[in-house]
Amino acid sequence: MTAADAYTALDEIIELRADSCRQNRIPLQKPLKKLESTSPLVLEVASRIVKRRKSVTLLQLQDLCYYCKVWSLIWFDTPLFREEFQAWADGPVNADLFHKLREYQTVRPEELQFPHAFSDSEERFINCILTAYGCESGDDLSAISHAARVPGT
């Protein structure tokens, strides 16, 4: 997916999320000017998300990782991580993440330990995504991506 594809496909999701954010008073704005990349892997980003959330479903984790990648493309013209997502019935799926965690319905920090030295800007960016999307259920995240016709959904 190119940055241009992400811009085009996410026009609707930005509006949907903006409506939800206004209702819940969650700011959805670019958290910083530049993303200083340490080139994390999707499994490392997922590990950080699970560590912050304490427990997430596999569906939530797939969607949260996907939104991290897409928003990094939109805001910074660079992906947070390189691994790609595929379009599955329930939404975007990263195959590595799926195969590593498919036996778990709920993922906890002890089940996904991939430490990574994230830059301060990456940490702030991931926290911004979790603030905006972290309270949504897996079904709600999937519904948002499907309603917006996001690539990979």
Write a structural description.
The protein is mainly alpha-helical and 153 residues long. The chain has 7 helices and 4 strands, in the order H-H-H-E-H-E-E-H-E-H-H. The strands form 2 sheets. A two-stranded antiparallel ribbon has the order 1-4. A two-stranded antiparallel sheet has the order 2-3. A hairpin with a 2-residue loop joins strand 2 and strand 3. Helix 1 packs across helix 4 (58-76) and helix 4 packs across helix 7. It starts with a helix and ends in a 6-residue tail after the last helix. The model has no long low-confidence stretch (mean pLDDT 77).
Question: What key phrases describe this protein's structure?
Answer:
7% strand; two-stranded antiparallel ribbon; globular; 7 helices; mainly alpha; two-stranded antiparallel sheet; 153 residues
Read across the widest sheet, the strand sequence of neighbours is 1-4
| Distance linking N and C termini | 13 Å
Count of separate DSSP helical elements:
7
Task: Characterize the main sheet.
Answer: 2 strands, antiparallel
Strand content: 5-15%
> SS-based structural class?
mainly alpha
Question: Globular, elongated, flat, extended or rod-shaped: what is the shape?
Answer: globular
Mean pLDDT: 77
Q: From the alpha-carbon coordinates, what is the Rg to the nearest angstrom?
A: 14 Å
Count of beta strands: 4
| Oligomer state of the chains in this structure | single chain
Helicity level, as a percent range?
40-55%
- H/E order of the elements? HHHEHEEHEHH
Provide the low-confidence segments as ranges. none
